[in-house]
Design brief:
The protein is of the alpha/beta class. 28% of the residues lie in helices and 27% in strands. It has one domain: 3-Layer(aba) Sandwich (Restriction Endonuclease), CATH 3.40.91.20.
């Protein structure tokens, strides 16, 4: 799988320039680029039929790659002043009881907004050092589960997060895309997520 771009909505303070963050970003990028389809192939090749491919198996492979570098999956942020948000897909624990959060989108565009807002609240409450949301490109989106969140659809709202009063931390979106398409590969299996097919 390839990375098209990394968009920084917030990149402020010493942590954003630290070696620790550089290592985190490298681990996330490497976890993305190691994802292949079919399994054990050298590229990520999508079956090019509209809404034919699931997304949950892709996310699971990404989380597994992060866990090999010491990340922890499904971690719930402790924010005393607000209702408890849902768990973060994967976190890297850091000094001072803080962590870095990563979310891989498997839901619709509303889910993308919630993921970014959850990480923004974590920054505002000073419980995380930063967060990254991973979204498919518009071209990749059309071959995945219906209405999956995607980079192009959330891009018009970037000014909301860029103008938050946050002086320290990182909030970023990584846009991903398949390496190739082929009718000769099988569609990625769709898992069941709630009542929907993902």
């Amino acid at each position: 799988m390839k990375i098209l771009k990394t968009e920084f909505l917030i990149q402020k303070g010493p942590f954003s320039r630290s070696d620790t963050f550089k290592t985190i970003l490298t681990e996330v990028q490497e976890a993305i680029t190691t994802i292949t389809w079919p399994v054990n192939s050298k590229k990520f090749t999508l079956y090019p039929v509209k809404q034919a491919n699931g997304v949950v198996p892709i996310k699971k492979n990404f989380i597994a790659a992060l866990e090999n570098n010491g990340w922890k999956g499904e971690y719930r942020m402790k924010i005393a002043s607000r209702l408890r948000p849902g768990p973060v897909d994967s976190v890297k624990f850091l000094p001072d009881n803080k962590f870095f959060a990563v979310e891989w989108e498997t839901g619709n565009i509303s889910s993308s907004h919630r993921a970014l807002n959850k990480m923004a609240v974590g920054l505002l409450d000073n419980v995380i050092e930063g967060g990254i949301l991973i979204l498919p490109s518009r071209d990749m989106y059309k071959y995945l589960t219906d209405r999956i969140g995607n980079f192009a659809e959330i891009e018009p709202y970037f000014p909301v997060w860029k103008n938050l009063a946050i002086s320290e931390g990182v909030l970023a979106i990584i846009e991903i895309e398949h390496d190739a398409t082929s009718m000769d590969v099988l569609p990625i299996t769709k898992g069941t997520d709630g009542r929907g097919r993902r």
